[in-house]
Design brief:
The protein is of the alpha/beta class. It contains 14 helices and 33 strands. Strands 16-15-17-18-23-22-21-19-20 form a nine-stranded mixed sheet, covered by helices on one side. A five-stranded mixed sheet has the order 4-3-2-5-6, sandwiched between helices. α1 runs antiparallel to α2, α2 packs antiparallel against α14 and α7 packs across α10. The longest helix is centred in the first third of the chain and has 22 residues. The protein is extended, with a radius of gyration of 41 Å. The two termini are 40 Å apart.
């Protein structure tokens, strides 16, 4: 207590004593026991009230023994069962947490982990993922600023998360207990398979496969990829004790549209302990990106044939050359190329106002620029009757889409009318024009995008010379044809905005997180935070349907569908107020990553123990592990003094005693007729 508090307490005693004396003894001849009791009760009541007003803090000190934490972490993933080590794990865990010597020295903490880390002393070994990195992160958070050992019962085969070797605090020793047989068994395995999610119809798509062999003799194996009952490709692969890996690259045909499931397999005549990892399913969505291009022209020109040949090098494109007066409907086309438009194109422009097709306008010496100014609002032309040759300069800052410089600066000039070209809207210039050595600042090849409508402009004829020059320099038309295809791809893309946008994969591996996200926009295309989105999932085989709400997150709504069994599913997302819907489908592939292993990862766990100055132990070395922990002098219990300051006003009993004292004084006075 402070000096001021002590002085106030003494003053309170004097005040309480003085008032009691004045009440019961001053000028009073009666000094009976009743008077003494009443004086005491009055003194206690007044002093108690003054004590509450002063509110001194009472300090108490206690000593507490703090033991060093000892996390015992058990791998609860299904790979432990696959390695037939689940019973061993339970026995070791029980022996560690029930050891009285360890309990006396350590604060034993029992945890489990698979895809998540949690406090637990019971285990079912049904986890679908193994994430040791999550163990490191959580233990750092739980036992901050503390030096402690960690015992991990695991096979060390991580299937998700960052590399766990360097995730643990190097100052806190880790003692892995190896679960599973470390004997080397002959095993063939597809360790990784890389493939694009999408492939174009009637093209071939690449598949990259990484094969792995574990064994001590030379063997020959067969690798194949099949679809349904048909084998699409098959080849022989050889392994030796020194050659334990192989990388194969295979091209598969994309001959049917839709999501196609394939099965990769590796087999041999040798007996294997685990054949589940000899197979891996994968899926590819084959999409039809075929574009119908109408090349509309009223004149004959070499550019027409050059453009048609160049565009149709991509089998997904088809070009139809048509006269503007003979075109009946635009509904059959995806892109319009208007070659040197004049007044004959009026019906085409009028029809396209309703069709809304993206266009590529190519001008030249036969173009009616006054007519063109009336039909579009992107560029303003003020041209003379004089012809001019325009050279090209590539704009390296162009970022509307990825494209390489095919040597535009060295290409022959394009011919167009002389004059000025002024942009009326935002445009992206890929190639600017130059007259001899003078840069005009005007575009030669430019692109625009406004309210979902895309356009391209090539301001000059004789592009056939560009294609020919490109062939002379590269002995191939490929670079020029890719450049033209990029332009068509830009124009063929549908960039129309939708109110309900849903993002999902077309296939998931069983055991992986299945997450579908959605965004809903109002009429101003602003994210609507008050939308109510629901999703119904239907198993195509069992016809069983489940409904979920999508929860709002950061600028999106999402739902997690973890736990779905392998199979094909269709789904519908509905916004409750507007009734906007999105229909989709996905497939869950039968792939259990936890069944891929035949041995624990001894090398990785040894590396982890070395990194943290710990030591690896086997199941038959548990006593040695316990002895090592007990004999380590780094982990000593510490005595901690806990000082607690409690304000007297928090002591409810004092208030109760004051009330009792006042009540007792009133009752005694009443009983003795002093009131």
């Amino acid at each position: 207590m402070t000096t001021n508090t002590i002085l106030l307490l003494l003053l309170s005693i004097l005040i309480a004593g003085g008032l009691s004396f004045f009440q019961y003894f001053f000028r009073s001849k009666n000094k009976s026991k009743t008077q003494l009791l009443l004086a005491f009760l009055r003194f206690f009541s007044i002093f108690g009230i003054l004590l509450l007003l002063i509110n001194p803090k009472i300090t108490t000190s206690t000593l507490e023994i703090v033991k060093t934490p000892l996390p015992v972490v058990v791998d609860n993933s299904s790979s432990i069962t696959e390695l037939k080590a689940n019973e061993t794990a339970l026995e070791i865990h029980k022996k560690l947490v029930s050891d009285s010597r360890l309990q006396e020295k350590f604060d034993i903490q029992s945890y489990q982990f698979s895809n998540e880390f949690e406090l637990s002393d019971s285990f079912n070994f049904k986890g679908t993922q193994t994430n040791l990195d999550e163990v490191a992160k959580n233990l750092k958070s739980i036992n901050k600023n503390t030096a402690f050992p960690t015992v991990i019962l695991t096979d060390g085969n991580q299937t998700s998360g960052n590399d766990y070797v360097y995730s643990f605090n190097p100052n806190n020793r880790v003692f892995p207990v190896i679960l599973g047989d470390t004997t080397t068994f002959l095993d063939l395995k597809i360790s990784q398979l890389n493939v694009n999610k999408y492939a174009f119809h009637k093209n071939k798509f690449p598949v990259e496969v990484f094969l792995q062999y574990s064994g001590n003799k030379s063997i020959a194996a067969d690798f194949s990829i099949s679809q349904g009952g048909a084998v699409l490709t098959k080849q022989s692969v050889s392994f030796t004790p020194s050659k334990k890996t192989a990388v194969l690259n295979v091209l598969l045909p994309a001959d049917k549209i839709g999501v196609k499931v394939f099965k990769a397999s590796i087999t041999s005549k040798e007996a294997e302990k685990n054949t589940y990892n000899n197979h891996k399913n994968f899926a590819v969505e084959v999409i039809d990106q075929k574009s119908e291009v109408a090349l509309i022209t009223a004149i004959n020109h070499p550019d027409i044939g050059a453009l048609k040949r160049s565009i149709e090098t991509n089998l997904q494109r088809k070009v139809t050359i048509v006269n503007p007066n003979k075109i009946n409907s635009l509904q059959d086309y995806n892109v319009l190329i208007l070659y040197q438009p004049n007044s004959e194109f009026k019906s085409v422009f009028e029809a396209n106002k309703l069709a809304g097709l993206n266009t590529w306008i190519i001008t030249g010496t036969n173009t009616d620029f006054n007519f063109l100014n009336q039909q579009q609002n992107t560029l303003q032309f003020r041209m003379s009757g004089q012809k001019e040759d325009y050279l090209s300069d590539f704009n390296a800052q162009f970022n509307l889409f990825a494209i390489d410089n095919i040597g535009f600066e060295n290409l022959p000039p394009l011919q167009n009318a002389f004059g000025t070209v002024t942009p009326k809207e935002n445009i992206e210039v890929l190639v600017s024009s130059r007259i001899r050595n003078v840069n005009t600042g005007a575009p030669l090849l430019a692109y625009s995008e406004n309210q979902g409508k895309r356009n391209a402009f090539l301001l000059g004829e004789n592009i056939w010379k560009w294609r020919l020059q490109n062939h002379i320099e590269n002995q191939s038309y490929d670079k020029f044809d890719v450049f033209i295809d990029k332009t068509i791809q830009f124009l063929a893309s549908n960039n129309a905005r939708k109110s309900l946008v849903v993002n999902h994969e077309n296939f998931y591996n069983s055991g992986e997180a299945i997450e579908i996200t959605a965004q809903y926009f109002n009429k101003n295309y602003e994210f609507d935070e008050n939308a109510r989105l629901t999703i119904s999932i239907t198993n195509k085989k069992t016809k069983q349907t489940k409904n979920y709400d999508l929860l709002k997150g950061n600028n999106s709504y999402k739902v997690n569908l973890d736990g779905l069994s392998a199979g094909e599913y269709s789904f519908k997302v509905v916004e409750a107020k507007s009734k906007n819907t999105y229909n989709g489908f996905f497939e869950v592939l039968d792939f259990d990553i936890e069944r891929q292993f035949v041995n624990p990862d001894l090398n990785k766990l040894t590396q982890l123990a070395s990194q943290t100055q710990g030591k690896v132990f086997h199941p038959n070395q548990v006593e040695e592990l316990i002895k090592s922990l007990l004999q380590n002098d780094e982990y000593k219990a510490t005595q901690k003094e806990i000082i607690k300051k409690t304000p007297l006003v928090d002591w409810i009993w004092l208030l109760i005693l004051i009330v009792v004292s006042l009540a007792a004084e009133w009752f005694i006075r009443k009983y003795n007729g002093l009131l």
